[in-house]
């Protein structure tokens, strides 16, 4: 290879490398957006009686809230690809509570990828991307990212009713 060809090849490789870095940055920004797009403002925690589940935590729009049993108390292990499928329940400011959700069980968790995540009875809360409407519970009792996901009762416990894992205990 001649010197000009080598320089041209190196310049093309450098351009591709810069393009790859730019795409990676955009993807990372997209993941951050997906993580926090479910509720960008102040959230309301509430409860609802859902078919096959009973009374569980929901947001102010009726979206089911889940916990990830792989999370240690008051800490999230769901980032990146996990958070794109299971976006953390985030809020700007302290959330409000209604209809049986208990204010004394609510704390906040700082996330490096966006607004603070809501924690209920020590469990970081998440949405499931497969739930698109009020009362959907498609994430109930499924295993993804190495562990089970469950809706949360107003008492801060795993709601195993309505899943293949009935009777599951931590």
Could you characterize what this model shows?
- It is a single chain.
- The protein has 170 residues and is of the alpha+beta class.
- It is 23% helix and 26% strand.
- The chain has 2 helices and 11 strands, in the order αβββαββββββββ.
- The protein has helices at residues 3-36, 81-85; strands at residues 44-50, 54-59, 66-68, 90-91, 96-97, 106-111, 114-120, 123-124, 143-144, 147-152, 158-159.
- The strands form 3 sheets. Strands 3, 9, 10 and 11 form a 4-stranded antiparallel beta sheet that branches. Strands 4, 6, 7 and 8 form a 4-stranded antiparallel beta sheet that branches. A 3-stranded mixed beta sheet has the order 2-1-5, with no helix packed on it.
- The longest helix has 34 residues, at 3-36.
- The model is unreliable at 10-39 (pLDDT under 50).
Give keywords:
single chain; 170 residues; alpha+beta; four-stranded antiparallel β-sheet; 11 strands
Q: State the separation between the terminal residues, measured CA to CA.
A: 64 Å
**Mean of residue pLDDT values:** 79
SSE sequence, one letter per element: HEEEHEEEEEEEE
Specify the oligomeric state.
single chain
